[in-house]
Design brief:
Blueprint (H helix, E strand, L loop, with lengths): L14 H23 L5 H37 L12 H12 L4 E5 L3 H9 L6 E5 L6 H10 L5 H9 L5 H8 L12 H13 L2 H11 L5 E4 L7 E5 L4 E3 L3 H9 L3 E6 L7 H9 L2 E4 L4 H9 L4 H7 L3 E5 L14 H12 L6 E5 L6 H9 L9 H6 L3 E5 L13 H27 L2
Length: 436
């Protein structure tokens, strides 16, 4: 339904409140009619009519008030102006319909960090508003690392990027939060990082700062750090050495020709309670894409996280990278990525793997990556199936980009396709096993 009749389409939660208001209004009007007609009735019967009519008036007024209140809340939820910009140009009923449809979407928990997680979030928010991003806190480089050492706060860089990915803000606001100072004492620092750091001081805590920043940017879903403890990422290399520091790990590997064998945290730490709750309630858990050893696996080094994923009944998906990464996954195939996850976490963490099956990328782009030692990740399906996972392939390359990276839309669509297929397969298996 379009135009003025669009308000009558199913799922807007509009008709029910209008109907309730009309019922209440007719009840009030009917009661007054009864009062007028009851004047000629016997006294005892007239008293019963007055008592019943008065009760009907009270109930009718309550129904009208409640209907008006819910209609106002429904309209107001989509009628707020976009941050630092004008209102959405679409008709309000279209915006409301989309909002209601997204609210009915599956509960998604996305785990990772770096640039891969925000790409996934941008794709998923087109299909559901029930999104929780679980972000690594191991970053110690760049502006985030400086704020971490200067102020002793959780590094805000990856969290900032995830908030912006889920935000319903105008482009000018996104540019402001991503702006990096070019000169002076703040050179290289991001305005968004400073905003979150200042908000944590004003609001009295890092979690409050994340929530209030999310409110400012009208974020869809939630962004949570995997833990609030101050931890450092460490790695054991194949040459027997140990390296401390998220930014130092790939640098050491490149400088010494070594490979990462295992990552771990410098001290035991517990996962945020809200993270564990969201994992247990999730319909879909997506791990990756992103730097395997410095963005994805650091989350699994936090206590209780792997157990919560294993206990969850969600569809568990590992979204594999498109390109190998010098210093981390040089020469890795898709099965090598999954094997590393299983070695760190054990079985029951990954049941489904999403791989890019588009090997026909422009030659000039491949040449640029090959100069850095990177190559396309080969989707070796046979080896993956031997690891006990289902394999799903799709063309995930963003054709509009001058780099080889995931398309947010294709990534989100593929995750939803896997979710529907796995649910269907599981329902068929359950039907054959236990009957109708």
């Amino acid at each position: 339904m379009k135009g003025k009749w669009g308000w009558l389409r199913p799922g807007l939660y509009f008709k029910r409140w209008i109907f309730l208001g009309l019922v209440g209004l007719f009840g009030v009007i009917g009661s007054f009619v009864l009062f007028i007609e009851a004047r000629n009735l016997p006294l005892r019967l007239r008293m019963w009519v007055y008592v019943g009519g008065s009760a009907l008036i009270v109930l009718g007024c309550i129904a009208v008030y409640f209907a008006i209140l819910r209609l106002y809340q429904t309209i107001n939820s989509v009628n707020r102006p976009a941050v630092m910009g004008g209102q959405d140009a679409r008709p309000m009923n279209d915006r409301l319909y989309q909002q209601r449809a997204l609210m009915k979407g599956p509960r998604v928990v996305a785990i990772g960090g770096g640039t891969g997680l925000p790409t996934l979030l941008r794709g998923m928010k087109r299909f559901t508003s029930n999104i929780t991003a679980v972000v690594t806190v191991a970053d110690d480089g760049g502006g985030s690392g400086n704020l971490r050492s200067d102020m002793g706060i959780i590094p805000p860089g990856d969290i900032r990027n995830c908030i912006l990915a889920l935000a319903d803000a105008e482009p000018v606001m996104e540019r402001l939060f991503q702006y990096r100072f070019k000169d002076g004492a703040l050179k290289g620092q991001s305005f968004g990082n400073l905003f979150i750091a200042a908000m944590s001081e004003v609001s009295g805590g890092f979690m409050d700062a994340i929530q209030q920043t999310s409110d400012v940017l009208a974020v869809t879903g939630r962004v949570l750090p995997v833990t609030l403890e101050d931890v450092r990422l460490c790695a054991r290399m194949d040459d027997g050495s140990s390296v401390q520091g998220e930014s130092a790990i790939p640098a050491y590997a490149l400088a010494n020709g070594a490979r990462v064998r295992q990552v771990y945290l410098d001290k035991p730490c517990r996962a945020l309670g809200e993270v564990l709750e969201e994992l247990l309630k999730a319909d879909i858990i997506v791990m990756g894409p992103g730097s395997l050893y410095t963005s994805v696996l650091p989350n699994f080094c936090v206590q209780d996280l792997c157990d919560a994923i294993r206990a969850s009944r969600a569809v568990k998906i590992y979204a594999c990278n498109i390109m190998t990464q010098p210093g981390e996954t040089l020469g890795y195939k898709a099965s090598d990525h999954v094997r590393a996850v299983l070695e760190h976490c054990g079985r029951g963490i990954v049941n489904n793997v999403l791989v890019n099956d588009n090997m026909e990328v422009p030659a000039y782009l491949l040449e640029r990556y090959q100069k850095e030692g990177a190559a396309l990740v080969k989707p070796d399906r046979g080896a993956l199936e031997k690891l006990g996972v289902r394999v799903f392939g799709a063309d995930l390359v963003d054709a509009r980009s001058d780099t080889i990276r995931h398309s947010a839309m294709q990534l989100g669509q593929s995750v939803m396709d896997i979710y529907r297929q796995v649910r269907f397969i599981d329902s068929v298996i359950h039907h054959k096993t236990y009957g109708p």
